[in-house]
Specification:
heterodimer; A: 232 residues; alpha+beta; five-stranded mixed sheet; 9 helices; 6 strands; globular; B: 157 residues; mainly alpha; two-stranded antiparallel sheet; two-stranded antiparallel ribbon; 5 helices; 5 strands; 73% helix
């Protein structure tokens, strides 16, 4: 053993021998507390309707883009932002399955409520573009395309180039689309929807409201099943 | 100025590395579970974590952070029980790793402020921890060197 090592040991034993126990105690407390915190942070909340966060809205749902039967037993309102990566993940991986199993079978009316988050610079333009596509009867195909191609336009400084190209891809009238977009025809509506989401208690996207209760993407199927069961 | 070669700076480095490990683990979990499922309102973390800079050599930075802090924690813990490992002085190894972590922390803070334009709270905490770990590793390295020098001179070598 080197002399330095011996010196270290002596110092350790003499001055800090008892502090090692305290050190390990603090280390253990931080480790256990930290792991416990991490475990609770990522725990999926129970989809049961009791104790769910409440979502309120003053917007008539009939004024919003929707798919599925108007008189379906359950209405799901998705609060989403076209630039949010999580909304993109939901739209590209889970939504088709939900539509196939619940919307196409007449069990669910699926409503889209814009909630463009302020940290996403192109979220409002994308929402406006989707409304311009909706004017030509193509909200959902355009919605699907915006999410599928999110990486293409999310950081664009002039996203109209991409947005207009998507309109063309869907065989929409590009001129009318661009006129609608440039005139900010739907900006007031989008702003109003943002305010409504914010005032209504939505604090993340995507959030799904069923009977005024908030659910998240991983709970959606279970929540729809529960709401359907309650209707029977 | 006389410095005793006490283990406190190594203990501090170990505790700070543990905090860093938990911080990085949280960001890594967010990336795997939460981050993929929600964009919280006003979330700088989500902007930073979903930016192209959150992936380095194909590996999410949060995962690299978990590995880095785990290594720092292991070396700091080891240095409380031994002075060297395979001929490598642990005080120097701890300072070297701490320096790499500090440079990484400075680089990622630069990216957040100057390039991405959003600050992620937990990433800023990680950078602060990097600085504190480096300070602890530096104090430890200097104390150990001074202890050696003192010992050598007292032995009249």
């Amino acid at each position: 053993m080197s002399t330095r090592s011996q010196r270290g040991r002596v110092a350790q034993k003499k001055r800090a021998g008892s502090s090692m126990g305290i050190f390990y105690a603090i280390l253990a407390v931080i480790a256990i507390g930290g792991v416990a915190l991490l475990a609770t942070t990522n725990q999926g909340a129970s989809p049961s309707a009791a104790n769910r966060p409440t979502i309120t809205t003053t917007i008539p749902l009939d004024s919003l883009p929707s798919r599925g039967k108007a008189d379906a037993p359950v209405t799901v309102v998705e609060y989403a932002d076209f630039q949010c990566p999580a909304c993109g993940a939901f739209a590209t991986t889970m939504e088709a399955g939900i539509v196939k199993d619940y919307v196409d079978t007449g069990k669910v009316r699926f409503v889209f409520h814009d909630f463009p988050l302020p940290q996403h610079a192109n979220a409002v333009p994308a929402a406006e573009a989707a409304r311009c596509a909706a004017d030509q009867g193509a909200f959902w195909p355009y919605h699907d395309l915006l999410y599928a191609k999110q990486a293409e336009w999310e950081n664009s400084s002039a996203p109209l180039a991409q947005f207009a190209a998507y309109a063309e891809q869907l065989k929409l009238d590009r001129g009318a689309f661009e006129t609608c977009f440039n005139a900010h025809t739907h900006l007031a509506t989008i702003t109003q929807l943002y305010q409504d989401s914010s005032n209504g208690g939505v604090n993340q996207t995507p959030t799904f409201a069923i009977n005024g209760k908030a659910y998240y993407a991983n709970e959606l199927r279970a929540a729809i099943d529960e709401a359907l069961k309650a209707k029977q | 100025m006389q410095h005793e070669y006490t283990p406190f700076s190594r203990m501090a480095a170990a505790l700070l590395a543990l905090l860093g490990l938990l911080d990085a683990a949280y960001l890594a979990l967010e990336r795997v579970i939460g981050g993929a499922l929600a964009c919280p309102i006003g979330g700088g973390c989500e902007t930073v974590q979903s930016s192209a800079y959150a992936i380095l050599f194909g590996v999410p930075v949060a995962f690299i952070g978990v590995a880095g802090y785990a290594l720092l924690l292991a070396v700091a813990m080891l240095s409380l029980h031994a002075d060297s490992l395979g001929g490598v002085p642990l005080d120097a190894l701890l300072l070297a790793l701490g320096s790499v972590a500090l440079l990484a922390g400075i680089y990622f803070m630069y990216l957040q402020v100057a390039v991405i334009g959003a600050i992620c709270f937990w990433c800023a905490i990680a950078a602060l921890l990097d600085l504190l770990i480096w300070l602890a590793a530096f104090v430890n390295w200097r104390s150990s060197r001074q202890a050696t020098t003192k010992l050598l001179s007292s032995d009249n070598l």
